Amino acid sequence: MSSAVISSQQLENPSQKATLVKALGRVAVIYGGTSAEREISLKSGAAVINALREEGVDVIGLDLGADPLSQLQTLNCDRVFIALHGPGGEDGRVQALLEFLHLPYTGSGVLASALCMDKQRTKQVWLGCQLPTPQYTLLNEASNWAAIVQQLGDNLIVKPVHEGSSIGMARVGSAAELAAAYEDAQHYDRAVMVEQFIRGAEYTVALVNGATLPPIQLQTHQAFYNFDAKYLANDTQYLCPCGLSGDKEQELISLASAAFAAVGAEGWGRVDVMADAQGDFYLLEVNTIPGMTDHSLVPMAARAAGMSFNDLVLAIASQAL
After folding, report:
1. Which one of 2.130.10.10, 3.40.50.1980, 3.40.5.60, 3.30.470.20 gives the CATH number of domain 116-132+199-304?
2. Which of 44, 93, 126, 140 is 20 to 30 A from 287 via CA?
């Protein structure tokens, strides 16, 4: 078996799939963790374990707790599938431990993981590469709320810098709302930012093993695509095909690929993008370990490309060969 990652076309060949399963050896799926995204990670981990087991992979699960080094040192496996979300799992720390332990793992490395978990520094890289992203500023106790609204406008969104799954985020339209949203976001992260809210369609583009999957347009009745819209609501709409013309869809795919490459992300991930009323695209963030639940977007995009959930999991696992 080559050390190259596996494509969906290769997985259609039973012989190649069997060779991959054998080459993977024992795979440890690490999930759970201690972040605010723990419950989502538990679901992702369970789904990945089930998929690998169904494909005949020798798989073990590890719910990572408050002492990850001790737990990881006891692992008896050949490689690791990371299904952790949020700080402590998606931010480079677990990746660094696995590298010290010489355990191959899925997804991005230490630097890209840490960078993409930091929304501010991700935006700084994109701005340095002349890639479009909404204007923003960091917030603190001394922030002049009225001046920020005057500078950025009255259609804003507040975000904890190091959280995912839209946890702690709030859309605001006044100085008073901005101040209140900052106080709430501080419960989740010491660093909080506010950026212009781009009013228009929202898209996401998944990337797996160097290939882009069909873009998805997200439509929600919520104020924005928040935690409820992502994981709880039954009326969130996912359009795939995404409704863009061929040229605009290619522009979106090219922008997502450039954004992914600019931050040094590898293996698999998801790039979130907004379009304004004129159809211009703005980058929001990169998710280096997206959700793998029944509501998750990467499996949805894979299905649109004719790829089963199990084959998607195998393709991601092949990155650790």
Report:
1. 3.30.470.20
2. 140
How large a percentage of the chain has pLDDT more than 70?
92
Q: State how far the Cα of 42 lies from the Cα of 51, in Å rounded to an integer.
A: 14
Which amino acid makes up residue 104? P
Q: What is the pLDDT of residues 83-123, one digit of tens each?
A: 999 889 999 999 999 999 999 999 999 999 999 999 999 99
The amino acid at residue 259 is A
pLDDT tens profile 156-201: 999 999 876 578 899 999 999 999 999 999 998 899 999 999 999 9
Q: Which residue is catalytic, options 38, 79, 93, 270?
A: 270
Question: Active site includes 108?
Answer: no
Query: Which of 31, 105, 188, 231 is flagged as catalytic?
Result: 231
Q: Which fold has domain 136-196?
A: Dna Ligase; domain 1 (3.30.1490)
Instruction: Give CA–CA dist 222/121, Å, rounded.
Output: 28
- Which pLDDT tens digit goes with each residue over 238-253? 999 999 999 999 999 9
State yes or no: is 282 an active-site residue. no
Tokens at residue 134, please? 């909404």
285 is catalytic: yes
Residue 231 is a catalytic residue? yes
- Which of the residues 90, 118, 285, 311 is marked catalytic? 285
- 234 catalytic, yes or no? no
Alpha carbons 163 and 95: distance in angstroms, whole number: 17
Indicate the domain borders of the chain. 8-106+309-320, 116-132+199-304, 136-196
Pick the catalytic residue: 44, 113, 165, 166?
165
Structure tokens at 131: 């890639």
Helix (H) or strand (E) holding 82: strand 79-82
